[in-house]
Amino acid sequence: MWAECGVRLARARYAVFGIDYEGHGRSSGSRCYIKKFENIVNDCNEFFKSVCVEKDYSDKGRFLYGESMGGAVALLLHKKEPFFYNGAVLVAPMCKISEELKPHPVVVNILTSFEEIIPKWKIVPTKDVIDSAFRDPAKREEIRNNKLIYQDKPRLKTALEMLRTSMSLERSLNQVRLPFFVLHGDADAVTDPEISKALYEQASSKDKTMKLYPGMWHGLTAGETNENVDIVFADIIAWLQKHTHDLVAELIIEPFNKCIERLEFPTPDKNESEDFSTGPLSVLLMSVKNNTQVLINCRNNKKLLGRVRAFDRHCNMVLENVREMWTEVPKTGKGKKKAQPINKDRFISKMFLRGDSVIIVLRNPK
Q1: How many C-beta neighbours within 10 Å does residue 285 have?
Q2: Catalytic one of 196, 218, 287, 357
Q3: In this structure, what are the phi and psi dihedrals at residue 35, rounded to the nearest 5 degrees?
Q4: What is the distance between the alpha carbons of residues 247 and 334, in angstroms, rounded to a whole number?
Q5: 154, 129 Cβ separation under 8 angstroms
Q6: Strand 63-67 and strand 358-363: pairing?
Q7: What per-residue confidence (pLDDT) applies to 275?
Q8: Cβ neighbour number for residue 134 with a 10 Å cutoff
Q9: Is the pTM of the predicted complex or chain greater than 0.85?
Q10: pLDDT digits (tens, 9 = 90+) for 246-299
Q11: What is the side-by-side strand order in the sheet with 87-91?
Q12: How many CA atoms does the CB half-sphere of 141 hold within 13 Å?
C-alpha cells in the first residue's frame, strides 16, 4: 500500500528513497522489535546521507517525508541535523499517542518494571491499530492480508520506546525550525490531531503549513477512499512544487571546496597530542603530516582511499583526492542464475566524513 506513495511522488518527478526499519518490512531482526528508537534514526540518517552524496543527487533539494512513526523519525532527523534538510512533509506524525490507544499510567509503570527482563514479549494491551487507522473497508482488508505488516500485540520494549519518543517530541516542538507541511485527519484515533496543531503553533519555523481533513482517519494516503487519497497527494505535491521551484540546494559531495583552507581545529593539549602521536589516531596524524594515503572501511560497506587533511578525536575527517569503492550485484529475473558482483568506484576531490561511519583505518595501503 505505501509503495503507492513513492509511485505518486515519482510521477511528479521527485526521486524517492526509503528503507524498512530494522525488524520491519523486509529488513532482518525480530519483527517490530525496537530496542532503541535512536537506532532507527541513526540508520535513516546514514542511509539518506549516503544517497545525498551520490553524483545525481548531491545538488538537489532534500526533503523528509514521514507518516505516523515515520513522522517522528523525520522530526528526530531534523533535530539531529538542523540545517541539512530543506523541508519536511509530516502525515499524521507520531508526536503524541492518542489517549484512546495509550495504556493506563498504572499499566505503563508495571510494564516498565519488566522492560529489561522480557523486552520482546507481546504483552502490551492496546486496541487494533488497523481497525482504528484505515477507514476504507477494502483497503483495511488488503492491509490485513499483507504478510509484511505486523499485526500482533506490540512488544514491550517497542511500545515503551514509542511512548517515550512521542513524549520527548511533544516537549521539544519549539526546536523544529525547518519548513514543513503537516497533514492530519481530524477523526484520527491513532495519533492525536491536537499534537499537529501544537506542532504548528509551537514550532520555530517561519515557513509552516497545516491542514486538517474533516472526517478522515489516520491512514490519509493508504486507508481512505481513492478520492480522498487523491486530494491528500494533490496537496502534498503542490507544497513540494512551491518549495522546490526556486530552491538552490547546497552541494554536499564537496562542501569545502571554497573554504577548506580556512578550517581550524583547536590546538590539542599535551595529553591529546600524545594520544594523537602514539594511539590509534596516529594513523590519521601521519597521513596529515606526510600527505600519505589511508584506506577507510565504512559502515555502508564502502571503502575510501584518500589523504587526510584534518581530523578530530571523534574521527571526523576532511579527506582529499578520495577514491570511493564498492561492490554491486546486478538484479536478475526470478529463476535466473545469480549475477556476478561488479566492482565500482568514483572520484571525489574533497569530502567530509563523519566519525560514526568509520569501522577501520589502514595506513599506507599498497
Answers
A1: 17
A2: 218
A3: -75, -45
A4: 42
A5: no
A6: unpaired
A7: 58
A8: 23
A9: no
A10: 665 555 544 433 333 334 444 455 555 455 666 778 888 888 888 899 999 998
A11: 63-67, 87-91, 180-185, 208-213
A12: 2
Q: Of these residues, 188, 196, 243, 287, which one is catalytic?
A: 188
Q: In sequence order, what E strands does the chain have?
A: 63-67, 87-91, 180-185, 208-213, 293-298, 303-311, 317-328, 342-353, 358-363
**Buried b or exposed e, range 319-345, using 16+ CB within 10 angstroms:** bbebebeeeeeeeeeeeeeeeeeeeee
Indicate whether 121 pLDDT > 80: no
Strand pairing category for 180-185 and 317-328? unpaired
**Known catalytic residue: 188?**
yes
Q: In the numeric block, which cell numbers belong to residue 107?
A: 499499566
d(CA 311, CA 259): 16
pLDDT at 184 over 70: yes
Q: Are 58 and 253 in contact (CB under 8 A)?
A: yes
Q: Which of 68, 98, 287, 357 is catalytic?
A: 68
Q: What are the phi and psi torsion angles at 222 (to 5°)?
A: -135, -15
Read off the DSSP letter of residue 97.
Answer: B
In the residue annotation, 68 being an active-site residue is answered as yes
CA atoms within 13 A on the CB side of 248: 0
User: What domains sit in the chain, N to C, each tagged with a CATH number?
Assistant: 2-249 (3.40.50.1820), 279-363 (2.30.30.100)
Give per-residue burial for 258-283: e unless 16+ CB within 10 Å, then b: eeeeeeeeeeeeeeeeebbeeeebeb
Length of the chain: 366
Q: How many CA atoms lie within 13 A of 246 on its CB side?
A: 0
CA atoms within 13 A on the CB side of 204: 9
Instruction: Cell 523544529: give the residue.
Output: 176
Question: Mean of the pLDDT values across residues 213-236?
Answer: 94
SS3 of 199-238: the string is HHHHCCCCCEEEEEECCCCCCCCCCCCHHHHHHHHHHHHH
